[in-house]
Amino acid sequence: MSAQSILDTDGVLVRKQSLFEIGQELEQIFDAYEQLSGEEADSYIASALEQYFEKLGTDLNAKLDGYCGLIKTFEAKAKIRKEEAQRLINLAATDENNAKRLKKRLQDWMEITGNQKLETTFHKIWTQANGGLAPLRWVMDHGVIDGQWCVEWVPEAPPVDAGIVPEQFIRVIPEQRVIDNEAVRNALNEGEELDFVKFGERGFSLRIK
């Protein structure tokens, strides 16, 4: 016997409707309802739905229960998998941080001991200058300390409205004024001396192969 068929109370083999077919028939009822108006529409839809649900009986209830149960199952599985994914992401972040700390300690030791390149039984270890653009260092504070003029340089740029960066190095994007780093770099590359910014030293990073 087909999974889509069942014997009715008279022993007659009838085909059960799928939830998709039930949905289609309900759509047809409401489509017809939209063509009517007023009391005629209300009377039609009430009668049509009453007859339709009487015809379906418990078949609709069972299908909807199964369908909703399947939705709940997938939602529960999705929630569990999201939580597990977040747990794994957190573990991966911890592993990455541990690796960075260990590499930093090894790099510090190599710099202190003057070793730029080492080779063990299984690994080659060396320090290498970072590529890319030279970092910018911005003036944060300056003044006389113990009779000497002192300046502190930091990697974070000062606020645009602090008055430290001249207007020629400020550009305007929609509704916002920002420091034009490209103009700053060009000026430094051309040898211009700026009292609010300078090139920093490229750092070194550890390589392991």
Brief digest:
This protein has helices at residues 19-34, 38-56, 58-113, 181-189, and strands at residues 5-7, 13-15, 117-119, 124-129, 136-145, 148-154, 170-173, 176-179, 197-199, 204-208. With 209 residues, it is α+β, with helices and mostly antiparallel strands. Among the domains are: 5-56; 136-208, no CATH class.
Task: Describe this protein's structure.
This protein has 209 residues and is α+β, with helices and mostly antiparallel strands. Among the domains are: 5-56; 136-208, no CATH class. The chain has four helices and ten strands; from the N terminus they run ββαααββββββαββ. Strands 3-4-10 form a three-stranded antiparallel beta sheet, with helices on one face. The chain has a three-stranded antiparallel beta sheet with strand order 6-5-9. The protein is elongated and about 95 Å long. The model is unreliable at 1-15 (pLDDT under 50).
